[in-house]
Design brief:
Keywords: Amino-acid transport, Membrane, Transmembrane, Transmembrane helix, Transport
Largest sheet: 2 strands, antiparallel
Strand content: under 5%
Main location: membrane
Structural class: mainly alpha
Subcellular location: Membrane
Low-confidence stretches: 3-45
Protein name: Amino acid permease/ SLC12A domain-containing protein
Membrane topology: Multi-pass membrane protein
Mean pLDDT: 82
Helix content: 55-70%
C-alpha cells in the first residue's frame, strides 16, 4: 500500500542541494559511513551517535518496542469489557489509524533520517514551542513505559515464586537495562533483535495453537470453533444495559487498542543510528506495519475464539492482580482445556517480551531526550556521548525513571499498572497527533516550495487525507481515554489525574516556551526543508556496507534485512 522510491544508493534524485565541500566534512570516509556529521554552517549542535544498526535490527526493533504484556495479558481486559466482536472490530479499526500515522512518519523520516526525527520535525515544521511540548511529552511517555514493564516483569516472575522480593527484581532488571544500553548501540540492537525474534515466534505459535485447539486438537477433543461468539455472545454490555452498554464496551476496546497498538515511532527513533537509512527505513516502515497489523488483528480475533467474555477465571485474575500471565486469555484457555506445561512456557516467553519492551523504552526515551538537547530544548550537558556513541547522561536519567516501579512495594502491582496505562495512553495519542500535524505542515511546505513528492525516497498514499484522518482520530481519542470518571459512581481522582495530566501539561509547555523564546508559527514557504540534509546526503554518498562477520550473521541479515 505504501510507495517507495530510491535510487541505487538510497538517495532521492534531483531533490536536494549539492553535498558540502570535502573540507567541510569532518573525519574520514569510514567515520562518515558510521556517523552523522554535524553541520557547523547550519548552527546545529553535533550529533555524536553512531550509525551501527543494521537492517535486521531496525526491522525487529519496531516489533520489540510494541509487543509487550499489553498484547499478551492486558488484551484480556478488552475482552471482558466489550466481548470478542467489539475487541476484533476495535483493533481492526485502530490499525487503519496506525497506517495513516505510519505513512506520515515514514515520508518525513526517510527524507531526513536524523536522531529523534519526528520530535525535531515538530519544531522545524510547525513552531519551536510546539516541538518543545511534543518532545517532552514523548520523553515522559517513553520514560513512564520503563517502570510499567518493570512492574509487569515483577508480576510475571511471581507467577512461579514469591521468594525474590519486589525490590530485588526491579533492581536486577534495572542493572541489566543499564548494561545493555550503556554499551555500544549495536549491542542494544543485537539484544533487541533476539528478544523480538522470540516475540515473533511466540505470536506465531499462539496463533497456530488457537487454530489447532479450536478445530478439536486439544485433550478434551472439543471442536468449539466460534462457539463463544454465540454463547455468551459477540458483544457484552459495560456500565449500562442495551445499545448504550454495548457501545461503551466497544469504546473501551478502542481505548485498549489505542494503547496496545503502536510501531512506527520505534522504527523512526532508530533512524539516526541506522546504516544506509534511505534504503533501510522505507522497507522497515512497510514491514513493521504489515507484521504488526497481522499480529494485532489476528491476535484480537484469537483471544475472542479461545475464551468467553464472561470467563470467571480471567475476571478473577484481573480483579485480584494475579501474578504473571495468569490473566492472559491464552493461559486461561490452556487451563480450560487442561493443557499442562504450555502455561509455564507462555509465561517465560511473556517475561522476555516484557523485558524486551522495557529495554526498547530505555533506548527510545534516552534518544528522545538526546534529540531535545540537540535542538537546544534540554541542557547541553546531555549531549555527552561515550566513545561508542551512547548518550550516557540521557540513559542514566531514563534509568532513574525506572525507580518509579518501586511504587508497587506499597501498592498493588495491578493498581500501579493501571496508573501507568492511563498516563501513557494520553501521551501516545498526543504524540501521534503531533506527528500528523507536523506532516500536514511538511506537505504544505513541499507544495509551497515546489518540491514534488514523486522525488521523495518514500511516498505514502492517500495524502494529505491520511494525515487528517490520523490527526482527527488521535485527537478525539486523547480526550475519550478517561471518560469513565465522568459516569455516575465511577469518579476516581487517580484515574482522572493520570488520564488527563499530559493533556493539561502539553499546552502549558507550549505557552511557556513560546513566551520565553518568542517563537512564531512557521509559514509554509519559510519552512527549512534542507537543514541537516547535506550530512545525510554525504553519508549516503560515502556509505560502505558493513560485511557480515560470519556465515550465520549473513543468513540472519538475508532473512531479516
Amino acid at each position: 500500500m505504501l510507495s517507495t522510491r530510491v535510487d541505487i544508493e538510497g538517495r532521492p534524485p534531483s531533490l536536494v542541494k549539492t553535498a558540502p565541500d570535502a573540507e567541510k566534512v569532518a573525519g574520514s570516509r569510514t567515520d562518515i559511513a558510521h556517523n552523522e556529521v554535524a553541520s557547523l554552517s547550519s548552527g546545529t549542535l553535533g550529533d555524536h551517535t553512531h550509525r551501527k544498526l543494521k537492517s535486521r535490527h531496525i526491522q525487529l526493533i519496531g516489533i520489540g518496542g510494541t509487543i509487550g504484556t499489553a498484547f499478551y495479558v492486558q488484551i484480556g481486559k478488552g475482552l471482558l469489557n466489550g466481548g470478542p466482536a467489539s475487541l476484533f472490530l476495535a483493533f481492526t479499526i485502530w490499525c487503519t489509524f496506525i497506517l495513516a500515522i505510519t505513512m506520515c512518519m515514514a515520508e518525513m523520516v526517510t527524507y531526513l533520517p536524523i536522531s529523534s526525527p519526528f520530535i525535531r520535525f515538530a519544531g522545524r515544521y510547525v513552531d519551536e514551542a510546539f516541538g518543545f511540548a511534543a518532545g517532552w511529552n514523548f520523553f515522559i511517555f517513553e520514560a513512564a513505559m520503563v517502570p510499567f514493564e518493570l512492574t509487569a516483569c515483577n508480576l510475571i516472575i511471581h507467577y512461579w515464586s514469591d521468594a525474590v522480593p519486589v525490590g530485588g527484581i526491579i533492581a536486577i532488571i534495572l542493572v541489566i537495562y543499564g548494561l545493555v544500553n550503556l554499551l555500544a548501540v549495536e549491542w542494544y540492537g543485537e539484544t533487541e533483535f533476539w528478544a523480538a525474534l522470540g516475540k515473533f515466534l511466540l505470536i506465531v505459535g499462539l496463533l497456530i495453537f488457537t487454530f489447532v485447539v479450536m478445530v478439536g486438537g486439544n485433550p478434551l477433543g472439543d471442536r468449539f470453533g466460534f462457539r463463544y461468539w454465540k454463547d455468551p455472545g459477540a458483544f457484552t454490555e459495560l456500565y449500562y444495559t442495551g445499545s448504550l452498554g454495548r457501545w461503551l464496551g466497544f469504546l473501551q476496546c478502542l481505548i485498549q487498542a489505542s494503547f496496545t497498538i503502536a510501531g512506527p515511532d520505534y522504527v523512526a527513533m532508530a533512524a539516526g543510528e541506522a546504516e544506509n537509512p534511505r534504503v533501510v527505513m522505507p522497507r522497515a516502515f512497510n514491514a513493521v506495519f504489515y507484521r504488526l497489523t497481522a499480529f494485532f488483528v489476528l491476535g484480537s480475533l484469537a483471544v475472542g475464539i479461545l475464551v468467553p467474555y464472561n470467563d470467571a477465571e480471567m475476571a478473577l485474575a484481573f480483579s485480584s492482580g494475579a501474578p504473571g500471565a495468569a490473566a492472559s486469555p491464552y493461559v486461561v484457555a490452556m487451563n480450560r482445556l487442561r493443557i499442562r506445561v504450555l502455561p509455564d512456557i507462555v509465561n517465560a516467553m511473556v517475561l522476555t517480551a516484557a523485558f524486551s519492551a522495557g529495554n526498547s523504552y530505555v533506548y527510545c526515551a534516552s534518544r528522545s531526550l538526546y534529540g531535545l538537547a540537540l535542538e537546544g530544548k534540554a541542557p547541553k550537558a546531555l549531549l555527552k556521548c561515550t566513545r561508542s556513541g551512547v548518550p550516557i547522561y540521557c540513559v542514566m536519567i531514563v534509568l532513574c525513571f525506572g525507580l518509579l516501579a518501586f511504587l508497587q512495594v506499597s501498592n498493588s502491582a495491578a493498581v500501579v499498572l493501571s496508573w501507568f496505562i492511563s498516563l501513557m495512553t494520553a501521551s501516545q495519542l498526543i504524540n501521534y497527533s503531533v506527528t500528523c500535524t507536523s506532516y500536514l505542515r511538511w506537505y504544505t511546505a513541499l507544495k509551497a516550495q515546489g518540491v514534488s513528492r514523486d522525488k521523495l525516497p518514500y511516498k505514502g498514499l492517500f495524502q494529505p487525507y491520511a494525515g487528517w484522518y490520523g490527526l482527527c482520530g488521535c485527537f478525539v481519542m486523547t480526550f475519550v481515554g478517561g471518560y469513565t470518571v465522568f459516569l455516575p459512581g465511577q469518579w476516581s481522582v487517580a484515574t482522572f489525574f493520570f488520564s488527563y495530566t499530559m493533556i493539561g501539561v502539553c499546552p502549558v509547555l507550549f505557552v511557556v516556551w513560546k513566551i520565553v523564546k518568542k517563537t512564531k508559527f512557521h509559514k509554509a514557504e519559510e519552512i527549512d526543508l534542507h537543514k541537516n540534509l547535506d550530512e545525510v546526503e554525504e553519508y549516503q554518498a560515502n556509505y560502505v556496507p558493513t560485511p557480515s562477520r560470519n556465515r550465520f550473521e549473513w543468513v540472519l541479515d538475508w532473512l531479516f534485512g
